[in-house]
Write a structure and sequence with these properties.
Blueprint lengths: L1 H5 L3 E7 L7 E5 L5 E8 L4 E9 L5 E3 L2 E11 L14 E12 L2 E3 L3 E7 L9 E2 L3 E11 L6 E10 L11 E7 L3 E7 L3 E3 L3 E11 L3 E16 L2 E16 L7 E7 L9 E4 L3 E13 L4 E2 L5 E7 L5
Parallel strand pairs: 3-12, 15-23
Antiparallel strand pairs: 1-4, 2-3, 4-9, 5-8, 6-7, 6-11, 10-11, 11-12, 13-14, 14-16, 16-19, 17-18, 17-21, 20-21, 21-22, 21-23
Pfam families: Vps26
Family: Belongs to the VPS26 family.
Organism: Exidia glandulosa HHB12029
Length: 308
């Protein structure tokens, strides 16, 4: 699309009102490049100006100009998953349109105001492994042979109230006559800048443990049953013990979430995808064997609260 656009005799510039004063969100694009865009919230108006400039003193005829505010979910098919994955790749769950100009001939630069008032943005923006939830403005200049389009992204954050009930996590895992531990985390629901506090109790140790690590795993689920695909990625590995523990020893845990690339937990967003987080405790012995990789994995809920 980009190569085609630059072949057109016009430049399109989309400017959001107060964009420079807004907080910016920095994210990774498909080619591992970084891109920033302004942050908006549910219920906020989206307004600004669109300037269209004709190139090289030319004039163009068009069949109308419009601007749309779009919310879309784009899902890609993972390699090798084509047989069982739901191939509903693109869905626009929000589409608002304003007409900027009737059919006319353009000889010089023109500027148009747009205003989408109090827009409901029911989902938070998300760029994952196989799915992207985007909000963007799209300007379309309708022409007889081919339309000219330009898009500008913005990022949406959604706040949630802290839960009234936030139970701790307690669990026992072990290998008969070899190893038995209990672990406890202070709660099961955390905000994005929270701290995970916990303890690990060694009740039986007959294995030469070298070290222990706590991982945060993000699991992205795309599609809907029975055509679902799961993909997991490790957000961080945090070493909480180096050396062999002894029976009766207690290891404290304190993990600050603010420094990691986390999103809130998303559950069944528009029946297209979910994103869940798990705390995974792993012990490694002197022969590099790993214990409790699955048994000690516990789901936690992550949510966003307003920042001070």
């Amino acid at each position: 699309m980009a190569a085609y656009f630059f072949a057109q005799p016009v430049d399109v510039d989309i400017r959001l009102e107060g964009e420079e004063e807004r907080k910016q969100f920095d994210y990774k694009t498909e080619k591992d490049l970084r891109q920033s865009c302004p942050i908006y919230y549910d219920g906020e108006s989206v307004q600004g100006q669109i300037t269209i400039r004709v190139r090289d003193g030319k004039r163009i005829a068009h069949d109308g100009i419009k601007v749309e505010f779009v919310g879309s979910i784009d899902a890609s098919t993972p390699p090798g998953a084509e047989l069982f994955y739901d191939r509903g790749h693109h869905q626009e769950f929000l589409s608002l349109t304003q007409e900027l100009s009737a059919p006319a001939e353009m000889r010089q630069a023109q500027t148009f105001d747009f205003h989408f008032k109090n827009v409901e943005k029911q989902y938070e923006s998300y760029h994952g492994i196989n799915v992207k939830l985007r909000y963007f403005l799209r300007v379309t200049i309708s022409r007889r042979l081919a339309d000219v389009t330009k898009e500008k992204d913005l990022w949406v954050h959604s706040f949630r109230m802290p839960p009234d009930i936030n139970n701790s996590i307690k669990m026992e895992v072990g290998i008969e006559d070899c190893l038995h531990i209990e672990f406890e985390y202070n709660k099961s629901k955390y905000h994005l800048k929270d701290v995970i506090v916990g303890k690990i109790y060694f009740l039986l140790v007959r294995i030469k443990i070298k070290h222990m690590e706590l991982s945060i795993i993000r699991r992205e689920t795309t599609g809907a049953p029975p055509n679902q695909y799961n993909e997991s990625e490790t957000i961080t590995k945090f070493e909480i013990m180096d050396g062999a523990p002894v029976r009766g020893e207690t290891i404290p845990i304190r993990l600050f979430l603010g420094g990691f690339d986390l999103t809130p937990t998303f559950r069944d967003v528009n029946k297209k995808f979910s994103t869940r987080y798990y705390l995974n405790l792993v012990l490694i012995d002197e022969e590099n064997r790993r214990y409790f990789k699955q048994q000690s994995s516990k789901e936690i809920t992550i949510f966003r609260i307003p920042e001070n």
